[in-house]
Amino acid sequence: MDTSHVLSLVESYGPLIIFICLFFGVVGIPAPEETLVVIIGILIHQHTLPALPTILSAFFGVFIGFLSSYAVGRYAGAPVFNKVTKLMKMSDFKVQAFKEKYEANYKKALLIGLFIPGARQINPYLAGISKIPFIPYVIVSLIGTTIWVVPFMMLGYATANVVTIRYEYLPFIGIFIGLAFILFFFIKHKRKQANSKK
What we know:
- The chain is globular.
- The protein is built from 9 helices and no strands.
- The protein starts with a helix and ends with a helix.
- It is mostly helical.
């Protein structure tokens, strides 16, 4: 789906198409999510879209997408996961070790993965498959939705009349932010290790 087509749909159908595109983008059907959220910010600035309904549709499109993927992973994902691990020839020990590692780090995985296309779609399913408790998952999803939607929307709003953004580069901005998060947690982990040795 190219940018001009997305823009046309958003201008024609407003908050409804925003909710649908972001929901399915998180669930796993290809959609230019970063591009869409930046466009939303631009259109709000230009008064083409109503601010509050548009912001809410974007937020809940992503958030409900996370909850839906989690539910699918929790109640129907195990058979698929088992088939994939068998195809990868992972032993039961390695599978269990992977699950334990994910359970210990799912918050970081979800928050960082939001900014990395592919990881954004896979992580909610893994959280469900790993039986991450629902309430903590909801809290992390709310935080994640906020820190993903707000910056891209603000980018569009703030630059609407200032610079021309090359939409095809937006996913790379998300990847850059994700890598920055990884670097931050890596440095924090190393410092913690160094302090524990003292």
